[in-house]
TrEMBL record:
Protein name: Glutamyl-tRNA(Gln) amidotransferase subunit A
Family under the similarity heading: Belongs to the amidase family. GatA subfamily.
Gene Ontology CC terms, in alphabetical order: glutamyl-tRNA(Gln) amidotransferase complex
Entry annotation: catalytic residues: K84, S159, S183
Subunit structure: Heterotrimer of A, B and C subunits.
InterPro entries recorded: Amidase, Amidase_CS, Amidase_dom, AS_sf, GatA
Signal peptide: none
Example GO molecular function: glutaminyl-tRNA synthase (glutamine-hydrolyzing) activity
Keywords, alphabetical: ATP-binding, Ligase, Nucleotide-binding, Protein biosynthesis, Transferase
Protein backbone atom coordinates (compact mmCIF):
# COMPACT_ATOMS: atom_id res chain seq x y z
CA UNK A 1 0.00 0.00 0.00
CA UNK A 2 1.31 3.45 -0.93
CA UNK A 3 2.19 5.71 1.98
CA UNK A 4 0.20 8.45 0.26
CA UNK A 5 -3.07 6.85 1.29
CA UNK A 6 -2.09 7.28 4.94
CA UNK A 7 -1.62 11.04 4.67
CA UNK A 8 -4.20 13.59 5.71
CA UNK A 9 -5.83 15.80 3.11
CA UNK A 10 -3.83 18.80 4.34
CA UNK A 11 -0.60 16.82 4.00
CA UNK A 12 -1.57 15.71 0.49
CA UNK A 13 -2.38 19.30 -0.46
CA UNK A 14 1.07 20.40 0.74
CA UNK A 15 2.73 17.55 -1.16
CA UNK A 16 0.93 18.53 -4.36
CA UNK A 17 1.88 22.18 -3.90
CA UNK A 18 5.51 21.20 -3.29
CA UNK A 19 5.69 19.01 -6.39
CA UNK A 20 6.34 15.82 -4.39
CA UNK A 21 3.50 13.94 -6.08
CA UNK A 22 0.90 14.41 -8.81
CA UNK A 23 -2.85 14.22 -8.47
CA UNK A 24 -2.87 11.28 -10.88
CA UNK A 25 -0.46 9.40 -8.61
CA UNK A 26 -2.53 10.20 -5.51
CA UNK A 27 -5.78 9.22 -7.19
CA UNK A 28 -4.34 5.98 -8.54
CA UNK A 29 -2.97 5.09 -5.10
CA UNK A 30 -6.44 5.45 -3.60
CA UNK A 31 -8.07 3.56 -6.45
CA UNK A 32 -5.57 0.74 -5.88
CA UNK A 33 -6.43 0.75 -2.18
CA UNK A 34 -10.15 0.55 -3.01
CA UNK A 35 -9.48 -2.32 -5.38
CA UNK A 36 -7.49 -4.13 -2.68
CA UNK A 37 -9.83 -3.84 0.31
CA UNK A 38 -13.30 -2.64 -0.64
CA UNK A 39 -14.92 -5.75 -2.10
CA UNK A 40 -18.68 -6.14 -2.29
CA UNK A 41 -21.71 -7.31 -0.31
CA UNK A 42 -20.00 -10.62 0.51
CA UNK A 43 -16.45 -9.57 1.43
CA UNK A 44 -14.27 -6.56 2.18
CA UNK A 45 -15.19 -3.18 3.62
CA UNK A 46 -17.80 -2.49 0.92
CA UNK A 47 -17.67 1.27 1.45
CA UNK A 48 -18.39 2.06 -2.21
CA UNK A 49 -21.44 1.39 -4.36
CA UNK A 50 -19.84 2.85 -7.47
CA UNK A 51 -16.17 3.56 -8.21
CA UNK A 52 -15.46 5.95 -11.08
CA UNK A 53 -11.82 5.17 -11.82
CA UNK A 54 -11.87 6.63 -15.33
CA UNK A 55 -13.57 9.84 -14.30
CA UNK A 56 -11.40 10.33 -11.22
CA UNK A 57 -8.17 9.88 -13.17
CA UNK A 58 -9.39 12.30 -15.83
CA UNK A 59 -10.18 14.89 -13.15
CA UNK A 60 -6.76 14.26 -11.58
CA UNK A 61 -5.00 14.75 -14.93
CA UNK A 62 -6.84 18.04 -15.41
CA UNK A 63 -5.69 19.13 -11.95
CA UNK A 64 -2.08 18.34 -12.82
CA UNK A 65 -2.41 20.34 -16.03
CA UNK A 66 -3.74 23.36 -14.14
CA UNK A 67 -0.89 23.13 -11.66
CA UNK A 68 1.72 22.85 -14.42
CA UNK A 69 0.22 25.87 -16.17
CA UNK A 70 0.47 27.95 -13.00
CA UNK A 71 -3.28 28.54 -12.79
CA UNK A 72 -4.82 29.72 -9.49
CA UNK A 73 -5.76 26.63 -7.48
CA UNK A 74 -7.98 25.80 -4.54
CA UNK A 75 -5.84 24.45 -1.65
CA UNK A 76 -7.46 21.00 -2.06
CA UNK A 77 -7.20 20.91 -5.86
CA UNK A 78 -6.07 17.40 -6.81
CA UNK A 79 -6.89 15.73 -3.48
CA UNK A 80 -9.29 12.77 -4.04
CA UNK A 81 -12.69 12.60 -2.34
CA UNK A 82 -15.64 10.21 -1.96
CA UNK A 83 -19.31 11.28 -2.03
CA UNK A 84 -22.27 9.69 -0.25
CA UNK A 85 -24.72 8.17 -2.71
CA UNK A 86 -27.52 10.51 -1.62
CA UNK A 87 -26.01 13.50 -3.49
CA UNK A 88 -26.78 13.73 -7.20
CA UNK A 89 -23.81 13.38 -9.51
CA UNK A 90 -24.24 14.10 -13.20
CA UNK A 91 -23.32 11.06 -15.27
CA UNK A 92 -22.80 8.79 -12.24
CA UNK A 93 -25.39 6.54 -10.55
CA UNK A 94 -27.24 7.93 -7.54
CA UNK A 95 -29.23 5.17 -5.86
CA UNK A 96 -29.59 6.36 -2.24
CA UNK A 97 -28.89 2.72 -1.33
CA UNK A 98 -32.31 1.74 -2.72
CA UNK A 99 -33.50 -0.66 -5.41
CA UNK A 100 -36.12 1.87 -6.44
CA UNK A 101 -33.35 4.09 -7.87
CA UNK A 102 -31.10 1.33 -9.15
CA UNK A 103 -29.31 2.52 -12.29
CA UNK A 104 -30.62 6.11 -12.13
CA UNK A 105 -28.16 8.59 -13.66
CA UNK A 106 -28.93 12.19 -12.57
CA UNK A 107 -28.81 14.90 -15.27
CA UNK A 108 -27.33 17.44 -12.85
CA UNK A 109 -24.90 17.84 -9.95
CA UNK A 110 -25.81 18.70 -6.39
CA UNK A 111 -24.39 22.09 -5.39
CA UNK A 112 -21.94 20.35 -3.05
CA UNK A 113 -20.73 18.14 -5.91
CA UNK A 114 -20.51 21.12 -8.27
CA UNK A 115 -18.30 22.95 -5.77
CA UNK A 116 -16.09 19.89 -5.34
CA UNK A 117 -15.63 19.60 -9.09
CA UNK A 118 -15.01 23.34 -9.48
CA UNK A 119 -12.27 23.15 -6.85
CA UNK A 120 -10.62 20.29 -8.75
CA UNK A 121 -11.01 17.36 -6.33
CA UNK A 122 -11.18 14.02 -8.20
CA UNK A 123 -14.32 12.12 -7.16
CA UNK A 124 -13.38 8.50 -6.50
CA UNK A 125 -16.98 7.26 -6.37
CA UNK A 126 -20.23 7.04 -4.43
CA UNK A 127 -20.35 5.52 -0.96
CA UNK A 128 -22.79 3.03 0.54
CA UNK A 129 -25.58 4.08 2.89
CA UNK A 130 -28.74 2.95 4.63
CA UNK A 131 -31.59 3.17 2.13
CA UNK A 132 -32.65 6.81 1.77
CA UNK A 133 -30.49 7.54 4.84
CA UNK A 134 -32.77 5.58 7.20
CA UNK A 135 -30.68 3.64 9.68
CA UNK A 136 -27.78 3.69 12.11
CA UNK A 137 -25.73 0.80 10.78
CA UNK A 138 -25.65 0.84 6.93
CA UNK A 139 -27.29 -2.59 7.10
CA UNK A 140 -30.43 -1.21 5.47
CA UNK A 141 -28.67 -0.66 2.14
CA UNK A 142 -30.34 -2.62 -0.65
CA UNK A 143 -26.83 -3.48 -1.87
CA UNK A 144 -25.50 -5.11 1.28
CA UNK A 145 -23.88 -3.76 4.45
CA UNK A 146 -20.65 -1.85 4.83
CA UNK A 147 -18.23 -3.28 7.40
CA UNK A 148 -16.26 -1.46 10.06
CA UNK A 149 -12.52 -1.39 9.19
CA UNK A 150 -11.66 -1.88 12.89
CA UNK A 151 -13.58 -5.17 12.99
CA UNK A 152 -15.41 -6.39 9.91
CA UNK A 153 -17.96 -8.25 12.02
CA UNK A 154 -19.15 -4.85 13.29
CA UNK A 155 -21.25 -2.04 11.83
CA UNK A 156 -19.62 1.23 10.63
CA UNK A 157 -22.54 3.35 11.81
CA UNK A 158 -25.21 4.85 9.64
CA UNK A 159 -26.68 6.06 7.54
CA UNK A 160 -23.33 7.26 6.22
CA UNK A 161 -21.28 4.22 7.15
CA UNK A 162 -19.84 4.01 3.65
CA UNK A 163 -18.25 7.46 3.81
CA UNK A 164 -16.85 6.87 7.31
CA UNK A 165 -15.53 3.40 6.46
CA UNK A 166 -13.88 4.67 3.26
CA UNK A 167 -11.97 7.30 5.23
CA UNK A 168 -11.11 4.93 8.10
CA UNK A 169 -9.89 2.24 5.68
CA UNK A 170 -7.64 4.74 3.84
CA UNK A 171 -9.67 4.40 0.65
CA UNK A 172 -10.24 8.17 0.56
CA UNK A 173 -8.67 11.06 2.50
CA UNK A 174 -11.95 13.00 2.42
CA UNK A 175 -15.62 12.16 2.07
CA UNK A 176 -18.95 13.94 2.13
CA UNK A 177 -21.79 12.56 4.23
CA UNK A 178 -25.22 13.74 5.28
CA UNK A 179 -26.57 14.04 8.80
CA UNK A 180 -30.31 13.88 9.50
CA UNK A 181 -30.16 12.62 13.08
CA UNK A 182 -26.48 11.76 13.49
CA UNK A 183 -25.58 10.04 10.21
CA UNK A 184 -22.19 11.75 9.98
CA UNK A 185 -21.29 11.99 13.67
CA UNK A 186 -22.32 8.49 14.82
CA UNK A 187 -20.37 6.72 12.01
CA UNK A 188 -17.44 8.98 12.88
CA UNK A 189 -17.62 7.85 16.50
CA UNK A 190 -17.63 4.11 15.76
CA UNK A 191 -14.94 4.24 13.04
CA UNK A 192 -12.48 6.58 14.75
CA UNK A 193 -12.95 9.38 12.21
CA UNK A 194 -14.00 13.04 12.42
CA UNK A 195 -17.58 13.79 11.42
CA UNK A 196 -19.20 17.23 11.24
CA UNK A 197 -22.82 18.33 11.00
CA UNK A 198 -22.70 22.02 10.03
CA UNK A 199 -25.31 24.57 11.04
CA UNK A 200 -28.55 23.81 9.20
CA UNK A 201 -28.43 25.78 5.97
CA UNK A 202 -24.67 26.44 6.08
CA UNK A 203 -24.12 23.84 3.33
CA UNK A 204 -26.53 23.70 0.39
CA UNK A 205 -29.09 20.90 0.26
CA UNK A 206 -29.76 21.40 -3.48
CA UNK A 207 -29.32 18.01 -5.13
CA UNK A 208 -29.39 16.15 -1.82
CA UNK A 209 -32.15 13.55 -2.22
CA UNK A 210 -34.35 14.52 0.71
CA UNK A 211 -35.24 12.27 3.60
CA UNK A 212 -36.46 15.00 5.97
CA UNK A 213 -36.12 18.53 4.62
CA UNK A 214 -35.99 20.27 7.98
CA UNK A 215 -33.30 17.93 9.34
CA UNK A 216 -30.97 16.88 6.48
CA UNK A 217 -27.52 18.50 6.33
CA UNK A 218 -24.44 17.60 4.27
CA UNK A 219 -21.04 17.78 5.93
CA UNK A 220 -17.42 16.56 6.06
CA UNK A 221 -16.07 13.11 6.95
CA UNK A 222 -12.30 13.17 7.51
CA UNK A 223 -9.43 11.88 9.61
CA UNK A 224 -8.54 15.23 11.24
CA UNK A 225 -10.37 18.33 12.41
CA UNK A 226 -8.27 20.54 10.11
CA UNK A 227 -9.25 18.45 7.08
CA UNK A 228 -12.91 18.80 8.06
CA UNK A 229 -12.53 22.59 8.30
CA UNK A 230 -10.91 22.71 4.86
CA UNK A 231 -13.72 20.66 3.37
CA UNK A 232 -16.57 22.56 5.01
CA UNK A 233 -15.13 25.88 3.84
CA UNK A 234 -15.10 24.42 0.33
CA UNK A 235 -18.64 23.00 0.22
CA UNK A 236 -20.32 25.62 2.42
CA UNK A 237 -21.79 29.02 1.63
CA UNK A 238 -25.05 30.54 0.46
CA UNK A 239 -26.82 28.90 -2.47
CA UNK A 240 -29.77 30.65 -4.18
CA UNK A 241 -30.93 27.25 -5.44
CA UNK A 242 -31.67 26.17 -1.85
CA UNK A 243 -34.45 28.09 -0.10
CA UNK A 244 -33.13 26.95 3.31
CA UNK A 245 -29.58 28.14 2.62
CA UNK A 246 -28.28 30.69 5.14
CA UNK A 247 -27.14 33.94 3.53
CA UNK A 248 -24.65 34.73 6.24
CA UNK A 249 -20.94 33.89 6.36
CA UNK A 250 -19.46 31.75 9.12
CA UNK A 251 -16.34 32.71 11.03
CA UNK A 252 -13.22 31.20 9.39
CA UNK A 253 -13.19 27.49 10.20
CA UNK A 254 -9.62 26.65 9.20
CA UNK A 255 -8.31 29.48 11.39
CA UNK A 256 -10.38 28.14 14.29
CA UNK A 257 -8.99 24.63 13.79
CA UNK A 258 -5.42 25.91 13.68
CA UNK A 259 -6.00 28.00 16.81
CA UNK A 260 -7.46 25.00 18.62
CA UNK A 261 -4.53 22.79 17.62
CA UNK A 262 -2.31 24.85 19.93
CA UNK A 263 -4.15 23.17 22.81
CA UNK A 264 -5.08 26.45 24.48
CA UNK A 265 -8.73 26.74 25.53
CA UNK A 266 -8.34 29.51 28.09
CA UNK A 267 -11.61 31.37 28.54
CA UNK A 268 -13.74 28.73 26.80
CA UNK A 269 -16.80 27.61 28.79
CA UNK A 270 -17.79 23.97 28.24
CA UNK A 271 -21.11 22.50 29.34
CA UNK A 272 -21.49 18.77 30.00
CA UNK A 273 -25.08 17.76 29.19
CA UNK A 274 -26.38 15.88 32.22
CA UNK A 275 -29.21 14.17 30.30
CA UNK A 276 -26.78 12.45 27.89
CA UNK A 277 -25.19 9.98 30.27
CA UNK A 278 -26.06 7.43 32.94
CA UNK A 279 -27.93 4.15 32.70
CA UNK A 280 -27.63 2.42 29.34
CA UNK A 281 -24.38 4.12 28.37
CA UNK A 282 -21.42 1.77 27.86
CA UNK A 283 -18.89 2.17 30.72
CA UNK A 284 -15.94 2.34 28.33
CA UNK A 285 -17.63 5.13 26.39
CA UNK A 286 -18.22 7.14 29.58
CA UNK A 287 -14.65 6.55 30.78
CA UNK A 288 -13.14 7.95 27.56
CA UNK A 289 -15.60 10.85 27.66
CA UNK A 290 -14.63 11.82 31.20
CA UNK A 291 -10.92 11.60 30.34
CA UNK A 292 -11.52 13.94 27.41
CA UNK A 293 -13.38 16.41 29.61
CA UNK A 294 -10.45 16.34 32.05
CA UNK A 295 -8.08 17.19 29.18
CA UNK A 296 -10.23 20.19 28.25
CA UNK A 297 -9.90 21.41 31.83
CA UNK A 298 -6.10 21.03 31.64
CA UNK A 299 -6.19 23.07 28.42
CA UNK A 300 -7.74 25.95 30.33
CA UNK A 301 -11.45 25.43 29.67
CA UNK A 302 -14.02 26.00 32.37
CA UNK A 303 -16.30 22.96 32.61
CA UNK A 304 -19.76 22.96 34.20
CA UNK A 305 -22.76 20.66 34.13
CA UNK A 306 -25.74 21.91 32.12
CA UNK A 307 -29.24 20.48 32.17
CA UNK A 308 -31.31 20.37 28.97
CA UNK A 309 -34.45 18.64 30.31
CA UNK A 310 -36.38 18.31 27.04
CA UNK A 311 -33.52 16.36 25.43
CA UNK A 312 -35.06 13.23 26.96
CA UNK A 313 -37.96 13.70 24.53
CA UNK A 314 -35.76 14.29 21.48
CA UNK A 315 -35.77 10.69 20.26
CA UNK A 316 -39.59 10.41 20.30
CA UNK A 317 -39.93 13.85 18.72
CA UNK A 318 -37.50 12.98 15.94
CA UNK A 319 -39.24 9.70 15.12
CA UNK A 320 -42.49 11.56 14.53
CA UNK A 321 -41.12 14.48 12.53
CA UNK A 322 -38.71 12.48 10.38
CA UNK A 323 -41.22 9.80 9.23
CA UNK A 324 -43.79 12.50 8.49
CA UNK A 325 -41.39 14.38 6.22
CA UNK A 326 -40.11 11.09 4.79
CA UNK A 327 -43.59 9.91 3.82
CA UNK A 328 -44.13 13.16 1.93
CA UNK A 329 -40.73 13.18 0.22
CA UNK A 330 -40.81 9.56 -0.93
CA UNK A 331 -44.24 9.94 -2.50
CA UNK A 332 -42.47 11.09 -5.68
CA UNK A 333 -41.17 7.58 -6.29
CA UNK A 334 -44.31 6.50 -8.11
CA UNK A 335 -42.89 4.39 -11.01
CA UNK A 336 -44.18 6.96 -13.49
CA UNK A 337 -41.27 9.35 -14.04
CA UNK A 338 -37.95 7.72 -13.15
CA UNK A 339 -36.43 4.86 -11.22
CA UNK A 340 -37.74 1.31 -10.92
CA UNK A 341 -41.00 0.30 -12.59
CA UNK A 342 -42.61 -3.10 -11.98
CA UNK A 343 -45.69 -3.90 -14.06
CA UNK A 344 -47.86 -6.75 -12.72
CA UNK A 345 -49.48 -9.14 -15.20
CA UNK A 346 -52.92 -8.25 -13.94
CA UNK A 347 -54.45 -5.52 -11.85
CA UNK A 348 -55.69 -5.81 -8.29
CA UNK A 349 -59.16 -6.69 -9.51
CA UNK A 350 -58.07 -9.05 -12.29
CA UNK A 351 -58.08 -6.71 -15.30
CA UNK A 352 -55.26 -4.77 -16.90
CA UNK A 353 -52.98 -3.15 -14.32
CA UNK A 354 -53.78 0.44 -13.49
CA UNK A 355 -51.30 3.18 -12.58
CA UNK A 356 -52.15 2.50 -8.95
CA UNK A 357 -51.35 -1.20 -9.41
CA UNK A 358 -47.97 -0.38 -10.96
CA UNK A 359 -47.20 2.08 -8.18
CA UNK A 360 -48.16 -0.39 -5.46
CA UNK A 361 -46.12 -3.29 -6.86
CA UNK A 362 -43.12 -1.07 -7.65
CA UNK A 363 -42.99 0.39 -4.17
CA UNK A 364 -43.32 -3.05 -2.62
CA UNK A 365 -40.36 -4.30 -4.68
CA UNK A 366 -38.29 -1.13 -4.55
CA UNK A 367 -38.49 -0.05 -0.91
CA UNK A 368 -36.90 -2.01 1.94
CA UNK A 369 -38.54 -2.86 5.26
CA UNK A 370 -37.15 0.13 7.19
CA UNK A 371 -38.29 2.60 4.54
CA UNK A 372 -41.75 1.06 4.48
CA UNK A 373 -41.90 1.19 8.28
CA UNK A 374 -41.15 4.90 8.38
CA UNK A 375 -43.47 5.77 5.50
CA UNK A 376 -46.34 4.02 7.29
CA UNK A 377 -45.52 5.69 10.60
CA UNK A 378 -45.23 9.13 8.97
CA UNK A 379 -48.42 8.78 6.97
CA UNK A 380 -50.27 7.81 10.15
CA UNK A 381 -48.83 10.77 12.07
CA UNK A 382 -50.02 13.15 9.33
CA UNK A 383 -53.44 11.59 8.85
CA UNK A 384 -56.70 13.34 9.65
CA UNK A 385 -57.53 13.15 13.33
CA UNK A 386 -53.95 12.35 14.37
CA UNK A 387 -51.96 15.30 12.99
CA UNK A 388 -52.39 17.53 16.05
CA UNK A 389 -51.91 14.67 18.51
CA UNK A 390 -48.65 13.47 16.99
CA UNK A 391 -46.92 15.68 14.39
CA UNK A 392 -48.24 18.92 15.88
CA UNK A 393 -47.17 17.97 19.40
CA UNK A 394 -43.75 16.86 18.14
CA UNK A 395 -43.18 20.27 16.58
CA UNK A 396 -44.02 21.92 19.90
CA UNK A 397 -41.48 19.74 21.71
CA UNK A 398 -38.97 20.60 18.99
CA UNK A 399 -39.40 24.25 19.92
CA UNK A 400 -38.75 23.42 23.58
CA UNK A 401 -35.56 21.58 22.63
CA UNK A 402 -34.38 24.66 20.71
CA UNK A 403 -35.13 26.79 23.77
CA UNK A 404 -33.07 24.43 25.94
CA UNK A 405 -30.16 24.97 23.58
CA UNK A 406 -30.62 28.74 23.70
CA UNK A 407 -30.69 28.74 27.50
CA UNK A 408 -27.62 26.52 27.70
CA UNK A 409 -25.62 28.68 25.31
CA UNK A 410 -26.28 31.70 27.48
CA UNK A 411 -24.18 29.93 30.12
CA UNK A 412 -21.53 28.16 28.03
CA UNK A 413 -19.76 28.43 24.67
CA UNK A 414 -20.14 24.76 23.70
CA UNK A 415 -21.95 21.68 24.94
CA UNK A 416 -20.34 18.24 25.05
CA UNK A 417 -21.42 14.61 25.35
CA UNK A 418 -20.44 11.18 24.10
CA UNK A 419 -21.39 10.93 20.42
CA UNK A 420 -23.04 7.52 20.75
CA UNK A 421 -24.08 5.42 23.77
CA UNK A 422 -22.00 2.41 22.69
CA UNK A 423 -19.18 1.39 20.41
CA UNK A 424 -19.88 -0.42 17.14
CA UNK A 425 -22.21 -3.36 17.65
CA UNK A 426 -22.11 -6.59 15.64
CA UNK A 427 -23.66 -6.85 12.20
CA UNK A 428 -27.18 -8.23 12.55
CA UNK A 429 -27.32 -7.64 16.32
CA UNK A 430 -30.03 -4.95 16.18
CA UNK A 431 -31.36 -5.39 12.66
CA UNK A 432 -34.63 -6.91 13.85
CA UNK A 433 -35.08 -4.50 16.77
CA UNK A 434 -35.86 -1.01 15.36
CA UNK A 435 -36.13 0.63 18.79
CA UNK A 436 -32.69 -0.61 19.83
CA UNK A 437 -31.32 0.67 16.53
CA UNK A 438 -32.92 4.10 16.99
CA UNK A 439 -31.29 4.53 20.42
CA UNK A 440 -27.89 4.88 18.75
CA UNK A 441 -28.86 8.43 17.77
CA UNK A 442 -29.84 9.45 21.29
CA UNK A 443 -27.06 12.02 21.68
CA UNK A 444 -26.93 13.33 18.12
CA UNK A 445 -30.62 13.97 17.35
CA UNK A 446 -31.09 17.17 19.44
CA UNK A 447 -28.66 19.10 17.20
CA UNK A 448 -30.66 18.26 14.09
CA UNK A 449 -33.95 19.24 15.69
CA UNK A 450 -32.51 22.64 16.64
CA UNK A 451 -30.32 23.14 13.56
CA UNK A 452 -27.11 23.73 15.55
CA UNK A 453 -23.66 22.49 14.46
CA UNK A 454 -21.89 19.48 15.94
CA UNK A 455 -18.65 17.60 15.54
CA UNK A 456 -17.55 14.12 16.64
CA UNK A 457 -13.87 13.67 17.42
CA UNK A 458 -12.19 10.33 18.24
CA UNK A 459 -11.75 10.04 22.02
CA UNK A 460 -9.94 6.71 22.34
CA UNK A 461 -10.84 3.04 22.60
CA UNK A 462 -13.35 1.46 24.97
CA UNK A 463 -11.89 -0.94 27.54
CA UNK A 464 -14.51 -3.65 26.87
CA UNK A 465 -13.85 -4.21 23.16
CA UNK A 466 -10.98 -1.98 22.02
CA UNK A 467 -13.25 -0.13 19.59
CA UNK A 468 -13.39 3.64 18.94
CA UNK A 469 -15.38 6.10 21.06
CA UNK A 470 -16.55 9.51 19.88
CA UNK A 471 -16.64 12.85 21.73
CA UNK A 472 -19.37 15.26 20.55
CA UNK A 473 -19.11 19.06 20.65
CA UNK A 474 -22.16 21.24 19.94
CA UNK A 475 -22.24 25.02 19.39
CA UNK A 476 -24.87 27.70 18.69
CA UNK A 477 -26.19 28.10 15.15
CA UNK A 478 -23.61 29.76 12.86
CA UNK A 479 -20.90 29.31 15.52
CA UNK A 480 -19.39 26.29 13.75
CA UNK A 481 -15.93 27.71 14.41
CA UNK A 482 -16.35 26.88 18.13
CA UNK A 483 -16.78 23.18 17.27
CA UNK A 484 -13.58 23.28 15.25
CA UNK A 485 -11.57 25.12 17.89
CA UNK A 486 -12.53 22.83 20.76
CA UNK A 487 -12.40 19.74 18.55
CA UNK A 488 -8.91 20.54 17.30
CA UNK A 489 -7.69 21.22 20.83
CA UNK A 490 -8.98 17.87 22.09
CA UNK A 491 -7.55 16.12 19.02
CA UNK A 492 -4.11 17.64 19.64
CA UNK A 493 -4.12 16.73 23.33
CA UNK A 494 -5.26 13.16 22.72
CA UNK A 495 -2.87 12.63 19.80
CA UNK A 496 0.00 13.68 22.05
CA UNK A 497 -1.13 11.16 24.67
CA UNK A 498 -1.50 8.37 22.10
CA UNK A 499 1.76 9.18 20.32
CA UNK A 500 -0.07 9.53 17.00
CA UNK A 501 -3.54 9.39 15.44
CA UNK A 502 -6.06 6.93 16.84
CA UNK A 503 -6.46 5.27 13.44
CA UNK A 504 -2.80 4.26 13.59
CA UNK A 505 -3.88 1.78 16.28
CA UNK A 506 -6.45 0.11 14.00
CA UNK A 507 -5.63 -3.29 12.50
CA UNK A 508 -4.93 -2.92 8.79
CA UNK A 509 -7.76 -4.15 6.59
CA UNK A 510 -6.74 -7.34 4.81
CA UNK A 511 -6.50 -7.22 1.03
CA UNK A 512 -9.17 -9.34 -0.63
CA UNK A 513 -8.10 -9.34 -4.26
Amino acid sequence: MSDWTRKTAAELADALAGGEVTSVELTQAHLDRIDAVDGDATAGVHAFLHVDAEGALAQAAASDERRSAGAPLHPLDGVPIAVKDVLTTQGLPTTCGSKILEGWIPPYDATVVRKIKAAGLPILGKTNMDEFAMGSSTEHSAYGPTRNPWDQTRIPGGSGGGSAAAVAAYEAPLAVGTDTGGSIRQPGAVTGTVGVKPTYGAVSRYGLVALANSLDQAGPVTRTVLDAALLQELIGGHDPLDSTSVDQPLAPLVDAARQGATGDLAGVRVGVITELSGEGWQPGVMARFQESVDLLVKAGAEVVEVSCPTFVHALATYYLILPAECSSNLAKFDAMRYGLRVVPETGKNGGLPSAEDVMRVTRDAGFGDEVKRRIILGTYALSSGYYDAYYGQAQKVRTLISRDFEAAFEEVDVLVSPTAPTTAFELGEKLDDPLAMYLNDLATIPANLAGVPGISVPAGLADEDGLPVGFQILAPALADDRCYRVGAALEALLTAEWGGPLLAQAPDVEEIR
